């Protein structure tokens, strides 16, 4: 499978809008994972996520921006892992875009200008896809 097909497959799984896992690195160098929900996807695989501005994940990103996202299809038929870099975004236009595209944020924040409304931009550098039907084969891999 060629690079473009692997990236397209990853985009399809990410676009399904299911909860996903964000992994960051803590101050001791250990992994820290948590479920996330809601995102905005840009080409090719740049992902924006909302979270509390003072959350532990934001502190971890400040200390080490490396991260991973993991998505799955129904029944874990396909598992997509994205490797990349997390960036904290404090741009009013980006926050307004997320606010407009993610109505669920009203349950957590007072508005796009709420000081506790934080945004993470994840820039994918590598994609790995495991496919259940091919469990005895290595994952599909592509650099973005």
Structure report:
By secondary structure, the chain is α+β, with helices and mostly antiparallel strands. Helix content is 22%, strand content 42%. It has a single domain (3-143), classed as Electron Transport, Fmn-binding Protein, Chain A (Pnp Oxidase, Chain A, Roll), CATH 2.30.110. It is globular and about 45 Å long. The mean pLDDT is 95.
What is the end-to-end distance?
Answer: 14 Å
Q: Which residues sit in consecutive blocks of at least 5 with pLDDT less than 50? A: none
CATH superfamily: Electron Transport, Fmn-binding Protein, Chain A
Radius of gyration, taken over Cα atoms and rounded to an integer in Å: 15 Å
The tally of strands reads 8
CATH class: Mainly Beta
- The ordered H/E elements are HEEEEHEEHEE
Structural class: alpha+beta
**Biggest beta sheet attributes:** 8 strands, antiparallel
Give a topology summary.
Blueprint: H1 3-15, E1 20-25, E2 31-36, E3 40-42, E4 46-52, H2 56-63, E5 66-72, E6 78-89, H3 92-101, E7 117-131, E8 140-143
Antiparallel strand pairs: 1-2, 1-5, 3-4, 4-7, 5-6, 6-7, 7-8
């Amino acid at each position: 499978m060629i690079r473009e097909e692997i990236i397209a497959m990853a985009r399809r799984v990410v676009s399904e809008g299911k909860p996903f896992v964000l992994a960051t690195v803590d101050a001791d160098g250990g992994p820290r994972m948590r479920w996330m929900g809601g995102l905005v996807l840009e080409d090719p695989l740049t992902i924006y996520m909302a979270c509390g501005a003072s959350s532990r994940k934001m502190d971890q990103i400040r200390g080490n921006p490396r991260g991973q996202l993991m998505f799955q299809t129904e029944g874990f038929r396909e598992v997509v892992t994205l490797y990349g870099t997390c960036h904290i975004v404090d741009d009013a236009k980006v926050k307004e875009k997320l606010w407009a595209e993610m109505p669920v944020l009203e349950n957590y924040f007072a508005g796009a200008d709420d000081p506790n409304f934080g945004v993470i931009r994840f820039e994918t550098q590598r994609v790995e896809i495991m496919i259940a039907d091919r469990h005895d084969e290595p994952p599909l891999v592509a650099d973005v």
